[in-house]
């Protein structure tokens, strides 16, 4: 099969391509990006005859990109949240399979197009959303009914090592964002930034940190995917390194996260856009002491009339250089990128389920994904307690 890797000059999705090169038998893997210099650098880094580069810009030439990707079997979409509506439109109209990292966009608007073409689109198949959906599903499969699903993660990375990461920071704490919700007793309830604080103990070396509700796709998809479990509550929380959170909290408290326009000389710019630009181009915005990812999933429910708590966590090699290929930033980027590359491989192998736009927890079998991740040194752990 042929895979088109849209936006794969980026730091995260190039890791998805790396996983394809290392583990798949894809006959052709094309890096498609508007940044030719970065894209060709990725091709050189991968050093595989199956990999080539094509310069594309679906913002200025969506019809041309749609025509190009129609020659492939699968599109692996590593573009940013704000672009996923347009990239998914191209993928759907090209009549090919698709996956992406974010799952926050308008992917569901193209459900009928994917179904009509007999193709699958899996939105939000990174670490979270993505692996978190599958970990929650694994616990849910062992229960008759569910009181609560609480998903938490610690994303230990610099605040702005790429434009996409800087955008994620701004979007997730936008005070007016409509998607920051919890699912409670059959309703979606809007909450503000820094709502419902809980202390979450993450696997070492990450420690215990306060976490707050964030706008993630798991809240939307899990209740719909598991109607028979009669779920009462779904919450998704997250945190970044403490220094990142202190900055974001201060920006929120002072109203900066609204991204109001300010005039600087003769130029008008969003204040958060200016701050993001500074951080992207500043060493302090691109570095951190500890890199990596930590997940914590708590599912409480009933089996045969007895109440159980399932807690699932995940671990991976340290970022201290002790394991080759996981040094510093790659301990973060590999965690996020590998699940998307793995999803492509499972579609290629006929191990995905359904057509149309399908949430990760319905598209892929959790235990199969966990086994594949073990081969890549990412491990899922589960403890079960009778309450």
Description:
The protein has two domains: 2-122, Rossmann fold; 131-335 and 365-386, Dihydrodipicolinate Reductase, domain 2. It has 14 helices and 18 strands. Helix 1 crosses helix 12 (330-348). The termini are far apart. The model has no long low-confidence stretch (mean pLDDT 95). The chain is α/β, with parallel strands linked by helices. 35% of the residues lie in helices and 27% in strands.
What is the compact description of this entry?
It contains 14 helices and 18 strands.
Number of domains as seen in the coordinates: 2
What is the CATH C level class of the largest domain, in words? Alpha Beta
Number of helical segments with 4 or more residues: 14
CATH homologous superfamily name of the largest domain?
Dihydrodipicolinate Reductase, domain 2
Note the overall shape: globular
Strand coverage percent? 25-35%
- N→C terminal distance: 48 Å
Count of distinct strands:
18
**How would a textbook summarize the main sheet?**
9 strands, mixed
Oligomer: single chain
Unreliable residue stretches: none
**Share of helical residues:** 25-40%
C-alpha Rg, in Å? 20 Å
What are the defining features of this structure?
Dihydrodipicolinate Reductase, domain 2, single chain, globular, alpha/beta, 387 residues, 18 strands, Rossmann fold, 2 domains
Give the helix/strand layout.
Elements lengths: L1 E5 L6 H11 L4 E6 L2 H11 L4 E5 L6 H8 L4 E4 L6 H11 L2 E4 L10 H6 L3 E3 L8 H10 L4 E12 L6 H10 L8 E4 L2 E4 L7 E5 L4 E7 L3 H9 L7 E7 L2 H12 L7 E4 L2 E4 H10 L2 H4 L5 E12 L2 E10 L14 H19 L7 E2 L2 H4 L2 H10 L3 E8 L1
Parallel strand pairs: 1-2, 1-4, 2-3, 4-5, 5-6, 6-17, 7-12
Antiparallel strand pairs: 7-15, 8-9, 8-12, 10-11, 11-12, 13-14, 15-16, 16-18
Helix pairs in contact: 1-12, 3-4, 7-10
